[in-house]
Each structure stands twice: as C-alpha cells, then as structure tokens.
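Hi everyone,

Forwarding the result from last night's run.
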Amino acid sequence: MKYLDEYRDARIARALAAEIRRRSSRPWVLMEICGGQTHTLIRYGVDELLGDSVNLVHGPGCPVCVTPLEIIDRAIHLARRPDVTLVSYGDMLRVPGSDADLFHVKAEGGDVRIVYSPTDAVNLARALPGRKVVFFAIGFETTAPAHAMAVLQAERLGLRNFSLLVSHVLVPPAIRALLASPKNRVQGFIAPGHVCTVVGCRDYEDLVRRFHVPIVVGGFEPVDLLEAIRMLVIQLEEGRAELENQYVRSVQYEGNRPAQAAVAQVFESADRKWRGIGSIPESGLFLKASYASFDAERVFELDDICAQEPAECISAEVLLGHKKPTDCTAFGTRCTPEKPLGAPMVSSEGACAAYYQYKRHLVAL
C-alpha cells in the first residue's frame, strides 16, 4: 500500500475503508468492471486496505483482453498483406495471436502503425491514397462514438481506401451473462464511469430490477472507488438493490445523446464472441450493411479465419471473477509482460498486468 501514502486524499481513503470494514457483516463479493478501476484498486492496495470485509474480483472490463483471438489473427493477416497499412492503438501490438503478435509482424516488415485516435487513421488514409488503411477499432461503448465519427468522416471525404476491423463489445450484456451463470458469486457491481458517461444509466437499471443486484456507477480515483464500495456495502447490509451514481461529476442518467446518435447511425448490435468467454448475445457492435464498404471483414473476406485459445491461460476465469491472477500457475513465471500467455498480462488495463506491475507476483511466488 505504499502508493496510497503518496495519494493526495489518503486520509479520506483510509477513513472510508475503516467505515466499510465497520459496516460489513460478511465478506461481500463485489466486482469492478473497468480495467482502469482494477489498476487503481491494485496500485493503491485498496483490496488490502479493506481486509476481509470485501472480496474484490475483477470483471471483463479490459477491451484488449476480451478481443477474440481470431480477431487478433485477422489483424495479423491484414498486417502481413503488402497492400495494407494496419493502424492500431499501442496496446494491441503485444497481444498474442495464434502464432505471432502485431509487434512481430511490424518487425518482419509489415506496415503497422500506432495512432492515438481514429482521426489519425482517417488522415493517414488521405495521405496514402495508394494504400489500404485498416484501423483496428476495439473498445467498449466509450470509444464507439469516435470510431463512428471516423467512418462518417471517411464517407464525407469519399475515402475508398479506409476501413475498420471492428471488435466492439458492450458492458451490460456481459454483466447479464455473469449474473445468469450458475457459477456467479458476485453480489454487487461497480459500473464503469467512462462507459456511463456515454450511454447513461438506463441499461444498468434494467439489470438491477431483473437480478435484484445493487450497481453503483463509480469513478477512477481511490476515493471514488471506496465511496462506490461503501454505497454497495450499505445496500447489501440493508437488503436493498438499487442503481446509484457515485460518479456524479461526469455521469448523467441520459448519457451523451449526440454520441449515442452517432453510434446508432453507424453500428448495430449483435452476438459477439469474447476472448476466452465465448459468445454473449447482443454484446457487440458491428457496422451496418449501409457501411459495408468500410468493414474490413467484408472488404477482405476474413470470416474463414478462426482460432483456439491456449489451454494453459486462465484469463477467462479471471475475467469472469472466478479466479484472481495469482491463482494461475503460470503467473509471473511462464506468463509475464515480456512473454504473455494471454491479453490480460499485456494490456495497460489488464488485471494480470496490474498484479504484476504492483508486485503481487512476488507475494504469489
């Protein structure tokens, strides 16, 4: 917990943790969905600060981690084409495919480039009219509006050499699948604040009503997360199940209507496969047929590329909250950020990477 002492509101954080320990009559099992929230919890030792009062498990809220292996293989296939410039966020370059990753393809001479926004990819397509520029569009609801705007911008500019390899997933269907599972043990959820900034809270309210489970929309500071945990514990101790919003400084109930409109114009929902988890109904965003010319899977006919997950990696169990990264026999030994078995050890939002970065592997060994 050394990082907590460096946190500007450490005193408030410790006071909140003490209140949670005092209020908890049993070790409630709570799940944060967002990978950014996971890193905050592990970096500042929030789980250790709470002791046995709460058992924090980590959900499938890392977009890099849940991108299916076959989509990674499709990206690698495209990057190896001599006529393609594959454009990606930096995290994706180290995610292992079946026989390589994008970093190795780039080292082999593939035209793989890192950008920080989809607008950069559109501008690259304008600058390279002789190349087929494919943007690897991954993420949750948070990044979908920007990717939709990139398609609309490319259409407006008449770009015929720009397309998206889409791997968008949606949070509420994943929570629904978790709650419907006979193996579920989660009793309350911290919903991702950045996602709710875009989509609002309505879908989470439906989950609360259907499954009678408390959900609190949370922010990303240690105090935000401890306050969200406190709100969940109070509900559970009182036998209530409600939707509450801790992250009121950023999240409104209706969300961002213009962003939602852009996504609705370009994308439609359908079943999506999640890495290690399998298909979740209506959990993905796909380009509508009217934007087929910007869909890399259709343009390059990639549907026949499939893959099997490595047997040793337990990332699915981690993403479902069934196990912690330190429960993996390969963690910190055969699986490290330099030689990862799975995406959660690579991504800056992955639970395994968080445990490794903040030395939990030293405890496990």
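The chain has a mean pLDDT of 91.

Cheers,
N.
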